[in-house]
Write a structure and sequence with these properties.
mainly alpha, flat, 7 helices, about 180 residues, 2 domains, about 0% strand
Length: about 180
């Protein structure tokens, strides 16, 4: 039985090494174009590789949701940086920085699923809040609306209080309430 465990771990390490080689080959293949910065591709690749490594440990060895969150976040950031290095977006990272909030929200979903084996409001409510915050900031970053973010905050600050209240209510709906009264 002990050799079965060793073979299983060895097979997982071989799989992870193969996946790493595939990512390295893919990154350098696409990064070999003249217009693409090799350093930027390397940075994107390191984010994706660290994400895959942390995901491997989160799923196979440790089974902790926080590691899966960081794995998903690293992979999403790496993919974004890689696509940005290939100049596939008509905007710069300076404009698209609110995508980090969206990526954080998206990364909470599989972490919550891993922890509870279902969509749980404890992870879903903050996830949706991060996604909404990122989308809101993207609207101002891409200048979709004709006014500045500071003007929006000055005029609509009660909306932030309302949204915080809704978020807190959603979080309390997902928790189990225990009664202090015990029946005899």
């Amino acid at each position: 039985m002990h050799t079965k465990l060793k073979r299983s771990i060895l097979a997982q390490i071989v799989f992870f090494t193969g996946l790493t080689l595939v990512l390295v080959g893919f990154a350098f293949l696409l990064g070999s174009e003249d217009a693409v910065s090799q350093q930027y591709v390397l940075l994107a690749f390191l984010f994706m590789l660290s994400g895959v490594g942390v995901a491997f440990f989160a799923i196979k060895l440790n089974k902790r949701a926080v590691y899966l969150f960081f794995a998903c976040l690293s992979i999403l950031v790496g993919i974004f940086l890689f696509l940005d290095a290939l100049s596939l977006f008509p905007f710069s990272f300076r404009q698209a920085w609110p995508l980090m909030a969206v990526f954080s929200g998206l990364s909470l979903i599989p972490a919550g699923w891993r922890r509870y084996s279902t969509l749980n409001i404890k992870f879903l409510a903050p996830s949706l809040a991060f996604i909404a915050l990122g989308v809101c900031l993207l609207i101002f970053s891409f200048r979709v609306v004709p006014f500045k973010f500071s003007q929006f905050i000055l005029n609509w600050w009660p909306l932030l209080i309302l949204l915080a209240g809704v978020l807190l209510m959603l979080l309390t709906l997902g928790t189990k309430h225990t009664s202090e009264e015990t029946k005899p």
